[in-house]
Amino acid sequence: MSVDFLHPGEGTAVDTGVPALEMRGIDKRFPGVVALDNVDLTLEPGKIHALMGENGAGKSTLIKIMAGVYGKDAGTIRMRGRELDIKSPRDSLKEGIKVVFQEIALISEFTVAENIFLEGYPTGKGGSIDWRKIRADSAALFNRIGFNVDPAARTGSLPVSQQQMVEIARALAHEARVVVMDEPTSSLTPNEISLLFTVIRRLAALGIAVLYVSHKLDEVFEIADTVTVLRDGRHVSTRPIGEHTNDTLIQDMIGRRIESLFPRKRGTPGSKVALSVQGLSTAKKLKDVSFEANAGEVLGFFGLMGAGRTELAKAIVGFDPITSGTISVDGRGLLPHDTHTGVRLGIGLLTEDRKSEGLMGELPVYQNASLASLGAFARMGFIDKAGERKAVQDYVDRFRIKTPSLFQQIKNLSGGNQQKVLISRWLMRGLKVIVVDEPTRGIDVGAKSEIFALIDRLAGEGLAVVMMTSEMPELLGLADRIAVMCEGRLTAIMSRDDATQEKILNAAIG
Amino acid sequence: MEMSELTQSSAPRRFLGGQLLGSSQLVLGIILAVLCIAISIAAPQFYSEANIIAILRQCALVLIVASGMTMLIITAEVDLSVGASLAFVGCIGMAVLNSTHSLALGMLAALAFAGGVGLFNGLVVTRLKVNSLIATIGTMMMLQGGVYLFTREAVQNHHRLISFTDLGAGYIGAIPLPVVIAVVIFAIAAVTLRFTTLGRYLYAVGANERAVRLSGVRSERLKLFAFVVTGLCVGVAGMILSSLMNAGQPTAGRGFELTVIAAVILGGTSLLGGRGSLFGTLLGVLVMKVIDNGIIILGWNQDLQMVVPGVVIILATYLDIIRNRANVG
Amino acid sequence: MNWSKSILFASAAALALSAAAAQAENMPKRIGYVTNYATHEWYQNVIKGMQSRAKELGIELEVQDANLDIAKQVSAAEDFMAKGVDVLIVTPVNEEGVVPLLRQAKSNDVPVVLEGNPVKGMTTMVAICDYDTGYTAGVEAGKYAKEKLGGKAQVMNVGLPLLSATVLRSQGFMDGLKTIVPDAVMVHDLDGGGNPDRALEVSAAALAKNADINIIYGINDSSSLGGLQAWKAAGKSQDNLLTVGTGGEGLAFINAIQNEPSYRIEAAMFPEKEGYTAIDAAVKLFNGEEVPEHIVSPTAPMNGDDWKKYYDYDGAVRTIKWDAVNALQPPETCMKTSADLKK
Amino acid sequence: MSLASTDTMKAGPSMLARLFARQELALLLCLILVIAFFSFTAENFFSVRNMTNVLGQASLALTAGIGCAIVFISGEVDISIGSLLATIALPLIIIMNDTNSLLLGVGGALLFGLIIGVVNGYLTAYAGINSLIVTLGTMFIMRGGVYLYTGQRAIPDDAALDSFIALSDGRLFNVVPYSAVIAIVLLVVFAYMMQHRPFGRQIYAVGGNPEVARLAGYDVRRVKFICFVISALLATVAGIILAARVGSAQHTAGLNFEFQVVAATVLGGVSLAGGIGSLTGMALGVLILQFLSNGLRGLGLPTEWQLVITGMIIIAAVAFDEAKRRRIVGG
Fold first, then answer.
1. Nearest to C104 among D50, D57, D169 (CB)
2. Full-model pTM
3. B323: number of CA atoms within 13 Å, CB side?
4. A37-57 average pLDDT score
5. A259 contact partners, CB below 8 Å, separation of at least 6
6. pLDDT for the residue B307
């Protein structure tokens, strides 16, 4: 039984009892690491199955084996009792396994419509592509799922959230038996999330097996029928969602209890202004943004996708040009407006886009960590390598960065550990103001709380922390004051005590 | 070497040689050794003092420019105009020497011109954001044309300065002066890349320019620096070449850029930036020139001088990949 | 161009130049010259000779450069024919490569004079005798070797196998040399690429292998100078060395004869004269006159300061002495040509 | 499917927008400017004879440029095409001389081209060696091999078959050179492939983002492999045209040809980064450079000025394009 979301009439009745997909005894080893050890997973047709676990638990590896990205070392995969031999993504797609990966997997130069049909172009006579059908079908598909985007738009020109929706839509354009979604909501707005959940429920109603991978407990409780938890490459539990509470889920995932995700240890912030931004505008997005951040304070910026948080972050550290306005750090103006001056004055950015703006993937951990503070280890232009490594080792120990050695290429570390290295980069430099943009993107629960603790500590040490986030709990859990943006403008600033989810969302909508 | 630190990361350091030699250097060192042994078995003259000096002198020119080029390629840019610039520099240097009879002024003019070409390339790449491969093809054409606008004939040596002749043909002890100059430039470049903050930044810019810029480092200046250094190296090499030929030859340097870039790539420096070492470049230059020399010494058809480096470049890169795979697997 | 004017030009030219070809009543208006490598000194002087002769005859001369690219040469000739030149002069980048070009010219009724190298299907070619040039220089080198080098002749040939012309020069040189020094040997036979840096590199390696030579022969001045520079760079004295250059294409050889003790013989080929002769041949073809297949342009070996007979040199520019050069008698036919090579 | 019929997308505006965004229009304007400028300044430039001559001259770069652009779009580079031009002329001419058959000669040349494409493609796509290194290596190997085999002498076309000569001298309806006709037909076929065949879109996807392409079920290595084969075969066709134009197998044929083609391709808006650009753009780039060099020759400018001006125009054009792109993308 297979179902094409576009042509639901062709689907047959849900045939429960026979698993849609059955993975048994899956093993996968990477050099020096056992990624998966004898893992089982069973997906039932018409059911929504959540897969949870910390980073490094093996979720991604399991999905990638399902998708044919990796080969498995041992174990079997069966679809409705028939054993599958999946060697490449093509094999997996042919079996109707559609995976929506967390990282956007679209060709940004193509139109939205073309991306929808990337896996198989409808062709007309003579095997030429039927562009009219592509446009019409994708428009129809968007219509069905209530998704408002121009199929002729260039994909790269869309905001990330819409790209994510396009990816989800793509999984529905072809016949599917199993749909896998890896952290699909990480950049969606609340409206889009509820849209997505409606879509997922309809998929299930059509008899498709859905595997929903997420860190977000509330989402899992809302949508899932069953939850499987992995830890350290091993299967921990598979239970109906009704048997779980927040605590039991977290305990399964981490193997211990977290007292609180947001351990606040710092005192109340001082009143010394560390960062002052007045009348800031940029050519594309920002309009007359003014605010101040005090030393020892976490100032949280909330906004929906496209509100201009990332643009603001890049502008105030001097990375992107501004058209008007002033920025001053500790009373000294950021002039000329560039990152060199910014870092000299003591303002730096922890980027949301680690891969293209943060990491030097090919270079070792220690060189990534010391990048911003090399001057401190320089003696007449020469690097004191011993001193440098000692300093980096210090941070590796303090932040419990998991790496085989300082010489490991940073691309081989997990997201959470990469983020810790990047935070170390700024701590080694010594800043007055740190701007953190979506600091926990792509980072799991366990590592998240460590990152939160680090941010708390930074503020405690007297830094002004400007935090851009789209995660409401993060905002309410960490920030002293909350600023809300909408379409490039600052629409509200409130203290945490005054803030409610409703007030924040109202300001975000404008 | 930076390379070794990277490639050794996954495995413990097993032997001293491993600390000195990164992945591709090891392969290359073996290739070099095999070549030397094989050639000298077939032709004992290979190990004559005169031949070794001849090889070293040939290496010197390539190594000087390759030192700058390695830095440039590490920052993920490339300069194809070095061959054309080499010819132009020689003509300008010689013309200034003829009119001033001062080696210092001649050198200065050559360096100023070549450095200026580097600066121009650098500005076009960093300011106008033109892909360096294309930008320097453009500069190459402009220089090839420009040199004939400057002089239609080879610029002859009218000044007869001994010091100028020594630049190419002189010796310090038993070692030819160009070799000494090359070693000094190589050493400075190697130390810079290996031990200084500047060198570290050059790697960093090649690995991720945006990250470097976010860290408060002026990445464009680093690239500009690498372009200018490459230019200056061409200035030195151009003057040595014109001394060796006793004239500024507008036709010189054809295909020189490919020899230099091939040697750098052969040495394991990645065209994508962020990876490579000068020690590898040294080996790359030696391998290329030993092959060239061996073919002449053995009396083989000189056309093989084109075929063999082609095979070696592909082979060395392939062996490097195999080795890396073996290490990972 | 009216009748009386051309007579005037013709008679003026005839008066000025005793060896000039007989003038006809019709002058082509425009001649197009596609050269091989205009930035090279040799061709610059060929062009100079053409220009001065064309000016005398009142002909408009246009020059295009193939810059060593055969495809570009074909394109440039096409352009000329589209433009409507009366006669085409071509220095082939490569002998085989311009066959289609000749075919096209024939179908367009444009006569073609070749300069330098023969091509299958050609009407006429103006060229020196390469073998003879090498041969006469070889004879002079033999005499010098007998007198100054103790009768020994160990030759390093900085050659260029790429072109039959340059191969002929090297052969001629050795054959001429052997007429005086029968046991002369070629120790090294090198491909110096015809350019100085390559010649230098190749010679350096060869000398490192075996430096037991006493004559350096170069198929052009860049090659002989490249060889000589390699000799000097190896730290050797020029006392018992003879360097023989070929061409005399630019200033380099004058400089070398003045300053390098071993640079004693230059096989001069007078590029200016070759250009001059090519224009005359073009005029004849235009008028449908009979011309020999090979119009020989004269060459002469120059010993030591002989060059002053043929050239004025003011330290920056050399000027050909037409009287002396026009007085040289070229042979009717060459001793050996590229056709002999292919046998 | 009732929803599908409500075709909300009109083809018109999006096409026009895409044309602007894809910069072909700017290139076309540039080409018209070049032609207009020389029509006024260079004698005999704007004549049917000269225009069609230029098309014939451009046929080499056009044909090889298709392959070059396709390889660029797939995210790789091929700089061995210049040497390939010289290499495949050998079997072509030798076989024709032996057999007096154009078909066998062309077949031999294509077989040779195929082998070279397979080698380039295998080493890049399957052995995983950087394509710039692979093709730099094969460039050296082929050029050296040709020199070795020929002893640096050209091999004349002794067979002188009429059909082969027609490739150089013949003109369709006595106007357009056959070589140009071949180039234009190939251009149309491959431009159609790139825009309207699934395989063409796969090439764009593979170059645009290989990881995404793999996840979409494409065999990335196979796609790249085929691109190299296509490039080698098209360069072979260019080599056959060149051999006809010069009536021989030239050992120095195509020296620096790769630079010309790469420059024209990039000028035409095909990105070295992969996934961006079109064959139409490439063709316009080739034509701009070809008309430019023809016009400069027509003005009687010496080589040195032609080089300087061409160099400046390449840099200026790419800089302008880059500035425009940045303005569109923002920042």
1. D169
2. 0.83
3. 17
4. 87
5. none
6. 82
Our CA angle for C122, C123, C127, nearest 5°, is 80
CB contact under 8 A, D314 and B141: yes
Cβ of A340 and B9 within 8 Å? no
A363 contacts in chain B (CB < 8 Å):
6, 203-204, 207, 274
- Most A CBs within 10 A among B214, B270, B328, hence the mutation to make, goes to B214
C289 in Cβ contact with C30 (< 8 Å): no
C-alpha R_g of chain C: 20
pLDDT in tens, D261-281: 988 998 888 888 888 889 999
**Neighbour-count burial for A430-444, b at 16+ CB within 10 Å, e otherwise:** ebbbbbbbbbbbbbb
Residue A169 has pLDDT above 80, yes or no: yes
**Both structure tokens of A506:** 């109202």
Report the residue count for chain C.
Answer: 343
Bridge partners for A79 per DSSP: A82
CA nearest D215 in A: which residue? A89
The CB density around residue C315, as the number of other CB atoms within 10 Å, is: 9
**D147-191 pLDDT, tens digit each:** 888 887 788 888 888 888 888 888 888 889 999 999 999 999 999
Return the H-helix or E-strand segment holding A494: strand A489-495
Q: Half-sphere exposure of D220 toward its Cβ, with a 13 Å CA cutoff? A: 22
Question: Taking CB atoms and an 8 Å limit, are B306 and D307 in contact across chains?
Answer: no
* Three-state secondary structure call for residue C80: helix
- What's the pLDDT score for residue C343? 57
Cα B172 to Cα A135: distance, rounded to the nearest angstrom: 75
Q: pLDDT tens-digit profile of A431-471?
A: 999 999 988 876 766 677 888 888 888 898 889 999 998 77
ipTM of the complex: 0.80
Taking each helix axis from N to C end, the angle separating B278-297 and B23-42, rounded to the nearest 10 degrees, works out to 20
Q: Which residues of C touch D304 (CB under 8 A)?
A: 39
Q: Distance between CA atoms of C207 and C156, rounded to whole angstroms?
A: 9
Contact assignment for B216 to A339 by CB distance below 8 Å? yes
* Model confidence at C10: pLDDT above 50: no
Place of tokens 């995700």: A261
Given CB atoms, is D245 within the 8 Å cutoff of chain C? yes
* Helix B162-169 vs helix B177-195: crossing angle, to nearest 10: 70
CB contacts of B146 in chain D (<8 Å) are 304, 307-308
The per-type count for chain B, helices as H runs and strands as E runs, is 15, 4
D297-312: per-residue pLDDT in tens?
888 787 788 888 888 8
Contacting partners of chain B (3+ CB pairs under 8 A):
A, C, D
CB pairs under 8 A between B and C: 106
Q: Which long-range contacts (CB under 8 A, 24 or more apart) does A470-475 make?
A: A470/A187, A470/A189, A470/A302, A470/A303, A470/A304, A470/A305, A470/A309, A470/A438, A471/A440, A472/A302, A472/A501, A472/A504, A473/A261, A474/A300, A474/A440, A475/A300, A475/A302, A475/A504
Residue length, chain B?
329
Rounded to whole angstroms, the Cα distance separating B189 from B278 reads 8
Q: Compute the distance between CA of residue A360 and CA of residue B218 in angstroms, rounded to an integer.
A: 16
The nearest alpha carbon in chain B to A428 belongs to B215
Question: For D94-146, what is each residue's pLDDT tens digit?
Answer: 999 999 899 999 999 999 999 999 999 999 999 988 888 899 889 989 998 99
Domains of chain D, CATH where assigned: 45-330 (1.10.3470)
What contacts 24+ positions apart, CB below 8 Å, involve D173-180?
D175/D48, D175/D52, D176/D52, D176/D55, D177/D52, D177/D53, D177/D55, D177/D56, D177/D59, D179/D56, D179/D59, D179/D60, D179/D241, D179/D244, D179/D245, D180/D52, D180/D55, D180/D56, D180/D58, D180/D59
Task: Decide if B287 contacts B28 (C-beta within 8 A).
Answer: yes
